[in-house]
Amino acid sequence: xxxxxxxxxxxxxxxxxxxxxxxxxxxxxxxxxxxxxxxxxxxxxxxxxxxxxxxxxxxxxxxxxxxxxxxxxxxxxxxxxxxxxxxxxxxxxxxxxxxxxxxxxxxxxxxxxxxxxxxxxxxxxxxxxxxxxxxxxxxxxxxxxxxxxxxxxxxxxxxxxxxxxxxxxxxxxxxxxxxxxxxxxxxxxxxxxxxxxxxxxxxxxxxxxxxxxxxxxxxxxxxxxxxxxxxxxxxxxxxxxxxxxxxxxxxxxxxxxxxxxxxxxxxxxxxxxxxxxxxxxxxxxxxxxxxxxxxxxxxxxxxxxxxxxxxxxxxxxxxxxxxxxxxxxxxxxxxxxxxxxxxxxxxxxxxxxxxxxxxxxxxxxxxxxxxxxxxxxxxxxxxxxxxxxxxxxxxxxxxxxxxxxxxxxxxxxxxxxxxxxxxxxxxxxxxxxxxxxxxxxxxxxxxxxxxxxxxxxxxxxxxxxxxxxxxxxxxxxxxxxxxxxxxxxxxxxxxxxxxxxxxxxxxxxxxxxxxxxxxxxxxxxxxxxxxxxxxxxxxxxxxxxxxxxxxxxxxxxxxxxxxxxxxxxxxxxxxxxxxxxxxxxxxxxxxxxxxxxxxxxxxxxxxxxxxxxxxx
Length: 616
What we know:
- There is one protein chain.
- The protein is of the alpha+beta class.
- The protein folds into 3 domains: about 10-55, SH3 type barrels, CATH 2.30.30.140; about 210-480, no CATH class; about 485-615, no CATH class.
- Helices cover about 60% and strands about 5% of the residues.
- It is built from 22 helices and 11 strands.
- It has a 5-stranded antiparallel β-sheet. Strands 6-7 form a two-stranded antiparallel ribbon. It has a two-stranded antiparallel sheet with strand order 8-9.
- The radius of gyration is 32 Å and the shape is globular.
- The protein starts with 10 loop residues before the first strand and ends in a 10-residue tail after the last helix.
- Belongs to the ERG4/ERG24 family.
- InterPro entries: ERG24_DHCR-like, Lamin-B_rcpt_of_tudor, Sterol_reductase_CS, Tudor.
- This is Delta(14)-sterol reductase LBR.
- Pfam families: ERG4_ERG24, LBR_tudor.
- GO terms for molecular function: Delta14-sterol reductase activity; DNA binding.
């Protein structure tokens, strides 16, 4: 028997998930492992359907014609057979046939009356239905923009079937006996649905990112090498690109005491994470419809960490120990992240299929190890990915900057830190505090909703963020730069502009997602999509598609400017960050096009620039 029934490119009828409605779709591909067809609807939406949810167009047409013609023929043949088999009882048979015919006509008349009455009442309640409402009910995006934010709430709350049922119950023309039978049938159907839920089959990752298996294999070695190269360069008197640093002795890269301090830091943040303070919120729905709970207490963890650092300074503990053993701390963090990545991959092999990451389920060991095989690995209620995203690395970044500030004062015999060091510490402290204060917003990012927790995020959170993002402060310790107050004021103004764009754009997006009917957002226009969400086309999101990325890049430039222009090394962060955000924008563009279909194409026509206005 053939392994598949429908060929690529074939036009068939596909059932819309969660309904009994079928629409014309085109088969684009077939997954032999999961036995799922990838189909494309007319509005551009691509979904994976089982073979049982797909039917040929010819069968639909045949059934339609059959239903319109077969019923009278069956009734006529039944009557003729009844007369031929029962010649002795023609009158009784005719009386029964006439009675049934009258009952059938009465039932049909009652049904027509009830339907008309229900439609009349619904029209009075909801007003005249429009073409756009019909399209939205059928899963098609509207063709016009809207600025009436209340329509989204209406779309989410409106339940046509329940409304019709309520009206029919209130104005029913049927007998109580018929209603009781209908309730019993409905009760049995609901019980059956509760016993046998809809089965959701996961799909394999087809499109490999980051260069596929070869690219991810190289990145596993390239990322640690880049970190160690940057730190060695900062230690040199002449950190020019052509002046390659000498390789250190391997024995000098490892220190058991340093590794113990790193473990103490990691588990201290874990203790702060587990404290029962802060509110508990739900994340976005998973593939199985379940929502995970997250405790929002990152800002409290930062306050407790600041108090602990204050106690250490009061006890005259030398924090510049971090500067003296900076390379060893980086090696310890890299070793820990590698061990954590191995543990995450091993435990993901036993994870249920519905808990695997949509972007890390390729079946290739290296690729899944790098991108993350499991989406939300948890030990009880302790979410490993969510914890590492904001706690050890991000808060550790601020602590490292403070240690560099103290090291600069001690090495150069300064009573106060340099103006350049103050600017770098202040700008980056603001960025970290903002991220922790708005911790809930991270639950909608690609890192949480799409990417699994593997080497990429583990190394990025625990090594790349604290040791690369603090590169400017580390550079200034060995290469002090003197800047004037007017220059400092100009750099501060540039950082404020970037921060304003970054924060206001993110707040605009988060507020719209949380409450589209907020009167404060009534002036915003959006393009409705088949998913029920809207794409903003005014405000910051009508300026460029990713205004938050634009603000991020402006701030990154402001962080590097206090280091002067003697070397390009302190500008590595802004160069890397532009490459990172351009790549992330391309990934986001691809996902949004698959998710929103034609609505995303209309959005791109309305907002043509991705990050940089009139440039890119």
